[in-house]
Each structure stands twice: as structure tokens, then as C-alpha cells.
């Protein structure tokens, strides 16, 4: 049978005869996400990695404590998504991880996205259930999703110790993959004293000390975040990384040559961004700079799609939005910074550098 061809209206075909392939794919997008989320949660990829050989659906279902029928369907979907490989052995189907699944979907991998996936499944996904309300109301949806007052954004984000650790693990996994690219987008070797505002787990600070062996990095974050980072993420071996406890809107900032704000400004309104950047400008040494690490929209707002979706996520989760390089430049200029440049990394996050005159 000949494959059905997609024909546009411009060729005179009635709309009823068109096949809405893309629209159907979009409608099913959340199904794909949940297959990945559930497979990680059940430990499918971890099991196949540790087994060191292909396994049958029966072996997998027994090991993860799931029904055989449900496991077979889940494995089939993972195969269709090219997360699993299959082979036939005496009429039996055996499953193994693809290389990307082993690298990014297993808990033990240094580049694991497992914790990020868990945060997406258990936090972001629930907020997005209320996207329609977020668009109508123009505000985040923590109250509907979790029954938490969101007037203090980080009280909502860190509404429990468990949730705070999940968020920090999310940030850790992101910077393990993208961190080197953003801290080397510009040559920052002339800056010896770096302050990472909202540095969270310290993953980006580690990328800085790795790329620039002569620098020191101070992570400025809330006291409970600092405590958790010291306990779970930054060891005594990281001798060039230190901590400063505080709220960057309320408390004085330590003096530095370079301030890094990675995924910080997209949480806030323009007014709050200028307020924070003005504090950074005052604390920054003459000849110093600020590095913004954000996902940049095209100047006409037409993409990238991922960043457009992230901007909607900022609506359901924060007070902010994603912005263009020009919009970040406007915020930096309002705070006093000059000679503003931006660099695209080719990955999710990009870099914007603003300088303080000597």
C-alpha cells in the first residue's frame, strides 16, 4: 500500500483530507515524558546497566516488582523511543540500554539526568497541570499544585528538605552537562575572585575552578541551601570553593571580581532583576564583571521552542520569564554595566557578560 502523503491546503486539498501529524505528536508529547519518567522511577535503566547482559521482559518485571503485561508495554514504548535495544534469542525478546540511556538515565552515571527527571515528574509536571490557570492569572501555581503559599518564592520552591535536595540535584545534573560550556564561553581567566550568587549545589563553581585553576569561588546562597550543599555536594577536597550565607536581595554581597548569576534572573520580574543587578554592580570591584547564564530567546521571540517552553515554565513556577540577549542587556545597562556581549553555546544555556569600568 502506498504511504499516505501529507498535502497542504495551497494545493487545493480540502482540510478534511489533511493528516494532522504534528498536532497528534504534540497531543501525545506528555505520554512520551511519562514513559521516560516512569521507566527511571521503576529502575529499568539501572537494572539493565547492572545486569551487564540483555534481559527478558519476565526478568525485568520480576526485578522491578511490576506486572509482566505492564512491563512489556513499557519496554516496547522505550524501544520505540530508542532508549532500549532489542535482540531475539530463541524466539524470546531481550532488552538492553542504548548508550544514551546508560549515560543519562542511570543513577550511577556522572552525567545522569535521573534527578532532573524525578523533579520534572514530581514537581514541574504537577505545576503544568495548572498551566491554563497560570496563563489566565499570570502567576505561578504552587498553591493549587501543592497547597503552598507562593508569596515567598523560595519558601515555595524549598517547601521541604526533600524538595530542596531534589531541586539541588536537578541543578547539579544540569551543570554537569552544560557547565563547562557556559563558564568558557568567554575567557574569564583574569577574574580571580568569583562569587556565584545562588550557587546551590556548587556544580557550576566546580566547573569554574576546573577551567580556571587560579580562581576561588564563593557560593552565596540561603543558609539551609549552604548547609545541604556542604553535606551532600561540596567536599573538603574542593578547597577553592567557600560559602557565604545570605539572601541576595536582603543581605550585603561579598566583594568579587566576577559575579555569576546562573538561572537566577529568569525567576524574577524586570524590576527585581535590576534591583539585584544594581547590588551586584555596587559590590563588584572596578574592572570586574557579571556573567549571566540563561537560555536565550531569539530576538524576535520566534524560538528556540525549548526556551519558549521554559518561559511558560517560569510562569507556572516563578515570577519571571526567559528573555532575549537584548532584554538582558537592557537590565544590565539599567544597573550600570557596559560593554555587554553574549555568546551562544549550542546547548540549552548561553552566556551574557557585562563589565564594570575600571
Give a structural overview.
This protein has 358 residues and is an alpha/beta fold. It folds into 2 domains: 29-105, Arc Repressor Mutant, subunit A (Orthogonal Bundle); 113-356, 3-Layer(aba) Sandwich (Rossmann fold), CATH 3.40.50. The protein is 47% helix and 17% strand. It is built from 16 helices and 10 strands. The protein has helices at residues 21-27, 29-42, 44-51, 57-64, 68-80, 99-104, 114-128, 131-137, 142-146, 153-157, 161-183, 203-211, 223-232, 270-283, 305-317, 325-335, and strands at 55-56, 84-89, 92-97, 193-197, 216-221, 241-245, 256-262, 284-294, 338-343, 350-355. The protein has a 7-stranded mixed sheet with strand order 6-5-4-7-8-10-9, with helices on both faces. It has a 3-stranded antiparallel sheet with strand order 1-3-2. Helix 2 (29-42) packs across helix 5 (68-80), helix 11 runs parallel beside helix 12 and helix 14 crosses helix 16 (325-335). The longest helix has 23 residues, at 161-183. The chain starts with 20 loop residues before the first helix and ends with a strand. The relative contact order is 0.08. The model is unreliable at 1-9 (pLDDT under 50).
Topology:
Elements: H1 21-27, H2 29-42, H3 44-51, E1 55-56, H4 57-64, H5 68-80, E2 84-89, E3 92-97, H6 99-104, H7 114-128, H8 131-137, H9 142-146, H10 153-157, H11 161-183, E4 193-197, H12 203-211, E5 216-221, H13 223-232, E6 241-245, E7 256-262, H14 270-283, E8 284-294, H15 305-317, H16 325-335, E9 338-343, E10 350-355
Parallel strand pairs: 4-5, 4-7, 5-6, 7-8
Antiparallel strand pairs: 1-3, 2-3, 8-10, 9-10
Helix pairs in contact: 2-5, 2-7, 4-5, 7-11, 11-12, 14-16
Amino acid at each position: 500500500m502506498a504511504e499516505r502523503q501529507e498535502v497542504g491546503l495551497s494545493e487545493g486539498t480540502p482540510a478534511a483530507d489533511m493528516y494532522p501529524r504534528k498536532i497528534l505528536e504534540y497531543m501525545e508529547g506528555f505520554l512520551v515524558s511519562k514513559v521516560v519518567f516512569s521507566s527511571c522511577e521503576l529502575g529499568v535503566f539501572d537494572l539493565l546497566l547492572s545486569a551487564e547482559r540483555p534481559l527478558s521482559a519476565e526478568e525485568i518485571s520480576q526485578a522491578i516488582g511490576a506486572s509482566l503485561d505492564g512491563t512489556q508495554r513499557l519496554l516496547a514504548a522505550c524501544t520505540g523511543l530508542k532508549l532500549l535495544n532489542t535482540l531475539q534469542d530463541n524466539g524470546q525478546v531481550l532488552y538492553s540500554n542504548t548508550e544514551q540511556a546508560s549515560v543519562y538515565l542511570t543513577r550511577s552515571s556522572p552525567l545522569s539526568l535521573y534527578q532532573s527527571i524525578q523533579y520534572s515528574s514530581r514537581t514541574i509536571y504537577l505545576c503544568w497541570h495548572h498551566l491554563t490557570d497560570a496563563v489566565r492569572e499570570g502567576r505561578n501555581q504552587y498553591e493549587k499544585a501543592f497547597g503552598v503559599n507562593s508569596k515567598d518564592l523560595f519558601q515555595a520552591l524549598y517547601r521541604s528538605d526533600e524538595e530542596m535536595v531534589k531541586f539541588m540535584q536537578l541543578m547539579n545534573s544540569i551543570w554537569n552537562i552544560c557547565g563547562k560550556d557556559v563558564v568558557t564561553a568567554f575567557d574569564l581567566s583574569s577574574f580571580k575572585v568569583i562569587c556565584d550568587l545562588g550557587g546551590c549545589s556548587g556544580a557550576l563553581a566546580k566547573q569554574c575552578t576546573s577551567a580556571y585553576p587560579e580562581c576561588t569561588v564563593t557560593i552565596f546562597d540561603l543558609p539551609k541551601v549552604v548547609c545541604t550543599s556542604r553535606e551532600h555536594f561540596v567536599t573538603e577536597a574542593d578547597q577553592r570553593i567557600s560559602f557565604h550565607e545570605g539572601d541576595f536581595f536582603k543581605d550585603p554581597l561579598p566583594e568579587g571580581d566576577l559575579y555569576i548569576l546562573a538561572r537566577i534572573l529568569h525567576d524574577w520580574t524586570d524590576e527585581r532583576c535590576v534591583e539585584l543587578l544594581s547590588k551586584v554592580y555596587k559590590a563588584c570591584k572596578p574592572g570586574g564583571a557579571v556573567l549571566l547564564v540563561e537560555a536565550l530567546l531569539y530576538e524576535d521571540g520566534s524560538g528556540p521552542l525549548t526556551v519558549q517552553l521554559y518561559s511558560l515554565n517560569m510562569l507556572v513556577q516563578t515570577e519571571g520569564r526567559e528573555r532575549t540577549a537584548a532584554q538582558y542587556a537592557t537590565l544590565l545597562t539599567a544597573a550600570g554595566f557596559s560593554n555587554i556581549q553574549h555568546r551562544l553555546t549550542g546547548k540549552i544555556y548561553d552566556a551574557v557578560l557585562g563589565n564594570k569600568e575600571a
